[in-house]
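Appendix B.2, paired examples.
Example (i):
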Amino acid sequence: MTENWWAQKVRITCESKHGVCEHNVGDTYVFEHVQDYVKGLCSGIQDPARPYAAYCALGQPSWESDDKSIYRIHCISKKGTVWKLERIPDEK
């Protein structure tokens, strides 16, 4: 785990789109801290993403078989978007 994990930045990127949505594949936003409100990110993914942003910040391994350091989650719409969450490495 990382010290000061609550201050760890997490990137969220739209990976796929399955219906009508204001977001597009490639849209990227940053949680400046895990409980941050991210301007421009719709509520259909903002609130569901928060726990996974915390897991990323903590360095908790995900269920993804190709890369345990990222999480992929779906927004609340049944025909919505899939998002990838990943830690942003600390700047030194």
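Example (ii):
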Amino acid sequence: MEDIHEKNPEEIKKELQRLQELLEKEPTRADVLLEISSCLRHLNNYEEALKVHEQLITLYPENFEYKFMKGIVMFECGKYTEALPVFDELLALDPTNRDVLFNKALVLKSLNRQQEAKEFMKLALRRAEK
């Protein structure tokens, strides 16, 4: 699959159509679903991207990365309150995950919970140093 970051919106729409046709043939292909999400995000269609992540999590409920990406998409579209429990769930599974700690800090900062955000950012930076 080509790098979606180098395409203009019209090219992304064509790629999205191609991916959706692929998905019709093989509805459980995680790589295709992830590319669809990426296309949708580049087109600022975050609600549809979230639906794709729900589909991924339904298909692969144990996959940490798919849950993490759902939290990222929620953050990107301003659903900070909804993103927080996603990152909390991931931290319950892996309390020292630097990326989750960092993104939880960003969510907390966006919710104007500055002190908590600082604490999680410190934890993430400590993990980055190891």
